[in-house]
Every structure is written in C-alpha cells, then in structure tokens.
C-alpha cells in the first residue's frame, strides 16, 4: 500500500479518535458544570438554613412580653370599636398610614379610659386583615411584662421577624 494511502487513512482514524475524545470531554465538562451548579444551589440552601437557625437562636433568647400583641390570647376579649363609632378618627389614622409623606409616628393620646386602646386594637385588627400590620404592643399598667418599656423592643423585633418570614 502506498505511503500516502496509509498516511491518509491514519489521519482519518486519528481525527475520528480526536473527535471521540473531544465529545467525551465536552460531555464530562457539561456534567461537571451541572454538578457545580447543583453544589452551589445546595450550598446556598445550606447557608440560608444556617442563617435562619442563627436568627431563630437569637429570637429565642429575646425576653419578650407575653400577651402584648393585639391578637394575643390574653387580650382576646378586649373590645374593638363598635360599628359606626369613632369613624372620623379611624379614617384619619387609615389615611395617615396610607400617606408615605406623613410623619412616621401617629401620636394617639388622651385621658385614661377615653378609648385609646380600643381604637388601637381596631386599627391593628384592620391592618392585620389587610396584611399591613408588622407588629403591635399593648402596654398594660401593673403587668410585669407589659407594664414597662423593658420588653417593648425585643417583643417588636420578634413580631416583626415573624411577620416578615410569613410574608416571604
């Protein structure tokens, strides 16, 4: 057999083998990329789990006031405004809450027994039903947990975290 035929058939065989090796290499490379993406997703998931566990550990250490939220069992029998009462004030508070340019705090004040807590519970109940309530805290004179500001911020932090995680 002439040399150019042997060289030509050898070249064709070498190219075929190179092509086979390259196809195998590309298949392996795609597999490695896929596995790498899966590992990255698993690491992200693991990172989120660890982060959530750390947050839960911090939240569990918070000294919160039991029964301070508007919907707590301890206040389940506390009243809200009767239908068609305090309409103007409730509307004013609703409008204030909807106005992004309004002051950040609505100061509801008045003498003892004038209905501040009832109005606040009504607003909190309304906002909760709309998915707009982040947290609430109802002080109660004479109660250890709810009678002072000591547990105000930890309780709000815990409630805000609970609402935030529920929302996402």
TrEMBL record:
Q: Tell me the keywords, alphabetical order.
A: Repeat
| Keyword Translocase appears in the UniProt entry | no
Repeat found in the keyword field: yes
Superkingdom classification of source: Eukaryota
Q: Where is the Nephrocystin 3-like N-terminal domain?
A: 91-162
Query: Which InterPro entries does UniProt cross-reference here?
Result: NPHP3-like_N (IPR056884), P-loop_NTPase (IPR027417)
Q: What protein is this chain from?
A: Nephrocystin 3-like N-terminal domain-containing protein
- Species the sequence originates in: Akanthomyces muscarius
